[in-house]
């Protein structure tokens, strides 16, 4: 049950169908048992995004925590990285974010953090999942003074803002910078625009309001069209877009052209290296990072370690290698010196500092981005198969991968990856020329379909 319950980013599903109040209550009970840390009343920080189902699930989760003898510290609507920061800041035993990140409004999720602010290890998730299946394990509830209480963290957003804003030095380090921000009707509506305004930027923010049913709908980092239109219609130096819980950031330059996670990470890594702040002159990306990014970092003397897709795997490799920067194309970027999970505001501030210094020198963000790296054309096809795991051991597929790889040589690469949730094999190729990438993918798709379709 645990492996099915917890995915790579907590528990997620259709609210009130897959993710029910009953499940949230039982998770709260389990956390009160497993993350006690010797306290009579273990404390848990709870934050949520703007979804309609958020208050329903929050009520059930908090009831479970307090019924198990824990205290619930309610942060209200705050970004996911705010909870990751607040847990160790307040000396709590753990934390939960009620959010489905970039997913549509009808979905929701429960992201659990340890006392250090990190997402839980697989072994502990398995133990919690087993307890959720086992009703007797959650019996023997406390009574009287052993029952938990609810407390409000009235300055949760302000604590988080002060922490992230301290990254930039000076009274108004972003003065003169014109910034467009799309908050996606999500949790960043009251944080990111405020941070930029306080740091001196001239800000135009959209989709800062919410109804509970509009988060990520045709806006934010999953739909950049409104941000692009705003930037192209105005005189902005850059545009920023968050997903619903603001642990990711995508950006556009002054012309409205996309800067994805690879490009943002390249710009920031080079900037940190120049400041002498890039630990080990290395970072962690994933196997899906663009070959142009890898080549650019290597040319700059920055080692790229590649993890499997998923921010938890990026973080694991960062910690193993003692590195402070890691991330994904999606814009989920971790700056471990400042926070324990992806932080869209931190990423935005680091990128804005680069843009502000470039503007002072008479350069634009597009100038910098084009000089830092050239994206290799990438072609990706999802192939429906009978058994997604069979691709790894198929001799015909392995032979064709070897042949295509040899044909591309140093000018490209291929990657076959089984989906973690669907009966699909993802076939990807990158090459200096798009035609070569497409031809490589066509060859591999044909053999995957013949062998597994």
What can you see in these coordinates?
- This protein has 453 residues and is of the alpha/beta class.
- It contains 15 helices and 18 strands.
- It has helices spanning 2-5, 21-34, 54-67, 80-89, 122-133, 156-165, 192-198, 225-233, 261-274, 291-299, 311-321, 344-360, 365-372, 395-408, 434-452, and strands spanning 11-14, 43-48, 71-77, 94-98, 107-113, 150-152, 178-182, 202-206, 238-242, 249-252, 258-259, 282-286, 303-307, 325-327, 333-335, 378-384, 412-418, 424-431.
- α2 runs parallel beside α3 (54-67) and α14 (395-408) packs antiparallel against α15 (434-452).
- It is globular.
- The mean pLDDT is 93.
Q: Residue-averaged pLDDT, rounded?
A: 93
Strand order of the largest sheet: 1-5-4-2-3-6
Report helical residue fraction.
25-40%
Q: What structural class is derived from the secondary structure elements?
A: alpha/beta
Strand count, sense and closure of the main sheet? 6 strands, mixed
Q: What's the gyration radius in Å?
A: 23 Å
In percent, how much strand structure appears in the residues? 15-25%
Count of alpha/pi helices = 15
Q: What is the general shape?
A: globular
Span of the ends, CA to CA: 29 Å
Total strands: 18
Low-confidence stretches: none
Entry keywords:
453 residues, alpha/beta, 6-stranded mixed sheet
Can you summarize this structure?
This protein has 453 residues and is α/β, with parallel strands linked by helices. Helices cover 38% and strands 20% of the residues.
